[in-house]
Amino acid sequence: MAKEYSNLIGGEMITNGAWMDVLNPATEEVIGKVPACGKDELDRAVAAAREAFKSWRKTSSDERAKVAQGIAAAIKENADELFRLLTAEQGKPHAQAQQEIYGAAGLAAAQSTLTLDDVINQDDDERLSRTRRVPVGVVGGIVPWNFPIMMAIQKIVPALISGCTIVLKPSPFTPLTTLRIAELIKDVAPAGTVNIITGEDSLGPLITEHEDIHKITFTGSTATGKKIMEGASRDLKRITLELGGNDASIVLPDADVEKVAEQLFWSTFSNAGQICVAAKRIYIHEDIYDDLSKAIAEYAKNVVVGDGSEQGTGVGPIQNKKQYDRVLELIQDAKDNGYKFLLGGDTDLSGTGYFVPLTILDNPPEDARIVAEEQFGPVMPLMKFSSEDEVIERANNSEYGLAGAVWTKDTDKGVAIAEQLETGTVWVNEFLHLSPFAPFGGHKQSGFGAEYGIDGLKEFTYPQVITVKRDAVV
Ligand code: NAD
Predict the structure, then answer these.
(1) pLDDT digits (tens, 9 = 90+) for 159-218
(2) Which terminus of the chain is more exposed, N or C, with fewer CB under 10 A?
């Protein structure tokens, strides 16, 4: 029988007798069972978080940093077990699962060094005015299935560092590694400061609308983000929304074709394309389009799509059936419209597991669904451009504004183009790099607010200004 995992509520690992199955997307086998929670368990978790907040809000930054470092250590010490479990439930190859687990531990350790210091607004004979950052209270964290551990840690740790307590809900598709981490940190984080409960999507709105939750930090699709904004409006909860993206990569004619081909490949196909900041539209200057598109397709032919637990696999399966069907639908649409494929394009797939062959399209039109929509799968549309102004306009012609990249030997020109892109992050000559100390967030329908860095921490607090009138007669 599949292993049963417990939730963390008020410092205890609990189950409630109702279960949800979790599948391995490479084998479609049930590999674990997690509690299917509803309003009762949520109320318990929120009550525990409220109680814990009373004392946690008064802790020093040193005490908070120690807990964050303890979380980092617990993840690192158990990394071997955790990355294997992550591959089993999420699908990503072992090496990428390792990166996520060590990355999450590194993020927790790095963020433990952040503090929100008071700011003096005025200090003279007349008045002392000081701004302090006050933790908002109980935070509701909701995360998706593509980077379940990174996303969980990037919500739990800043919540704790800023003095809040949290109730976190993993995606129903990928809760296992998160619950294993819950078990590992049970005695690291004081009881009630971190609560992790699992449930179907229907648990999400209960969190958004809970009257004792004061902030929602959400990562997921734009469609769900809109529902969260609506739900949170009832009591004007603070919200941070990290949503979808349709990131453009722009390759200028001076780029080194062979080197860029490999980089571009992984900027699209890492995690089987299921990355909010994956390169989803590749614009290549017409002078190098033929050479570069050929080099990318050649590179792709040597990358193995398969079970992430097997040695040699470069790209794993799509994480779940719903997303698998959506990616195949987009590929089918491209076929139906007669767009040209350099690689892949097969939608008549059989066998076990949600595997989609690597798919590269040759110059589809800008309004093709596979270009205009977020694919979130192993799909790479390559498009030709001739002038910088034209490509900037095409890159910005999207409802999303998450990230983008420019590839060129002329970094000044790269930066000049980057500054014209309407996105929260732009990389010049690299991709997917996020710093624990720099804000990460989107523009337009990619969401608002920030995670990471001081800007990210501030989102868990509100500013309180205290002024003391010095020359008053009382
Ligand atoms: P999703 O929106 O379907 O689900 C995300 C989470 O929201 C899950 O835990 C789900 O159970 C929960 N949920 C579902 N309905 C809800 C509701 N009505 N109210 C509250 N919660 C609800 O997203 P997904 O399919 O899991 O993830 C893929 C999407 O996430 C992609 O669009 C991707 O771009 C985006 N994403 C964004 C970032 C970022 O930082 N901007 C990072 C990773 C993924």
Answers:
(1) 999 999 999 999 999 999 999 999 999 999 999 999 999 999 999 999 999 999 999 999
(2) C
**Apex 265 CA angle, 262 and 271, nearest 5:** 125
For residues 99 and 80, what is the distance between their CA atoms, to the nearest angstrom? 11
Domains in the chain, CATH or no CATH each: 3-243+446-465 (3.40.605.10), 247-428 (3.40.309.10)
> What is the secondary structure of 159-202 as a DSSP string?
HHHTT-EEEEE--TTS-HHHHHHHHHHTTTSPTTTEEE----TT
Query: What are the φ/ψ torsions at residue 264 (nearest 5 degrees)?
Result: -65, -40
> What is the 3-class SS of 318-361, one letter each residue?
CCCHHHHHHHHHHHHHHHHCCCEEEECCCCCCCCCCCCCCCEEE
Task: Give the rounded distance of the alpha carbon of 151 from its chain centre.
Answer: 5
What is the b/e burial string over 39-54, where b = at least 16 CB atoms within 10 angstroms of the residue's CB? eebbebbbbbbbebbe
Please say whether the beta carbons of 189 and 25 come within 8 A. no
| SS3 per-residue string spanning 2-32 | CEECCEEECCEEECCCCEEEEECCCCCCEEE
Report CA(415)–ligand 1 centroid distance (Å): 31
List pLDDT tens digits, range 381-438. Answer: 999 999 999 999 999 999 999 999 999 999 999 999 999 999 999 999 999 999 999 9
The SS3 call for residue 365 is coil
Cα distance between residue 350 and residue 217, in whole Å: 39
The answer to whether the CB of 455 falls within 8 A of the CB of 247 is no
Residue type, 139: V
The 3-state DSSP class for residue 404 equals strand
- Which residues sit opposite 414 in a β-bridge? none
CA distance 432 to 408: 17
What atom of ligand 1 comes closest to residue 245's alpha carbon? 34
Contact 446, 423 (CB under 8 A): yes
Whether 242 sits among the annotated catalytic residues: the reply is: yes
Q: What is the DSSP letter of 146?
A: S
Burial of 252 (0-12, 13-18, 19+ CB in 10 A): buried
Residue 168, judged by CB atoms within 10 A of its CB (0-12, 13-18, 19+), counts as buried
Name the residue among 176, 113, 189, 172 with its Cα closest to residue 321. Answer: 172
Judging by DSSP bridges, how do beta strands 247-251 and 279-285 pair with one another? Answer: parallel
Written as six digits, the tokens of 293 are: 């598109």
Cα 8 to averaged position of ligand 1 atoms, centre (Å): 22
